[in-house]
Write a structure and sequence with these properties.
single chain; 49% helix; globular; 10 helices
């Protein structure tokens, strides 16, 4: 019962924090694009998830982490990046509105960035884990190497008051652990180390990593996230290239 009460309280407080009229709001963006020489071997990357992909508040689209990862392999491959992400999406929304198209596209790599909104909006942890499991199962069955982000430390969000930061941190740690559990079930999936890393600590210490809304990562934050995910992305690529659809 206590986790349910905490989740409901957090959801209500997040809604209050989201109504601050003194902070700007930003539109969602589409980081899709082509990278690399068309003569190189083709790699399709499909990004599923929420505003961590659509990057509201990032001024230069080239700084979005998923585009940084696409560029990082563009010397070896012609990368087609397709984003299906929708700002505010939860795992249920990915299942309802993104997974079918992702499977149809038959990507070499699929990135899954979902869970933050589930954690902040009071979704049951067990429901999130179940839905994420279905997402990863369908993508791996389609032959993709799947990179699961999980949930970073939401307690670092500067828009939240201190008491809310502590609750957000506890919820996001639990949701990230569930994402790790899901990724470990599938040989075709790998997970980014979202907790306890240098990038996780720096989001507490460096205000310049945040966009002006004090809620989403800004340009510098996205560049750092790309660096943090580089090795995991390469691992997902290696998995995808071994599958029949490669």
């Amino acid at each position: 019962m206590l986790p349910l009460v905490a989740g409901a309280y957090l959801a209500g407080q997040v809604m209050r924090a989201a109504r601050r009229p003194d902070l700007p709001t930003y539109p969602n963006q589409d980081p899709s694009g082509m990278f690399g020489d068309p003569a190189l071997p083709a790699v399709r990357v499909v990004a599923l998830g929420d505003s961590s992909v659509t990057a509201p508040g990032v001024e230069d689209l080239e700084n979005v982490w998923i585009r940084g990862l696409a560029r990082s392999i563009a010397d070896r491959y012609c990368v087609e990046l397709i984003s299906l992400a929708v700002g505010g999406a939860r795992a249920r929304d990915v299942l309802d509105g993104q997974i079918h198209e992702a499977v149809r596209l038959q990507p070499i790599v699929a990135t899954v960035n979902v869970g933050s909104n589930d954690a902040l909006r009071g979704v049951r942890l067990s429901a999130y884990e179940r839905r994420l499991d279905t997402i990863v199962e369908r993508l791996t069955a389609a032959g993709a190497g799947v990179m699961v982000w999980g949930v970073g430390d939401l307690g670092s969000i500067p828009r939240f008051p201190h008491v809310l930061q502590r609750l957000a941190a506890a919820r996001s740690r639990a949701f990230d652990a569930a994402a790790r559990t899901v990724a470990l079930r599938y040989p075709g999936a790998v997970k980014v180390h979202a907790w306890g890393s240098e990038s996780s600590v720096r989001f507490y210490q460096e205000p310049d990593l945040w966009a002006g809304d004090l809620f989403h990562a800004g340009d510098a934050g996205h560049r750092m996230l790309a660096e943090a995910a580089q090795s995991t992305f390469e691992a997902a690529l290696a998995i995808g290239l071994r599958k029949p659809n490669a």
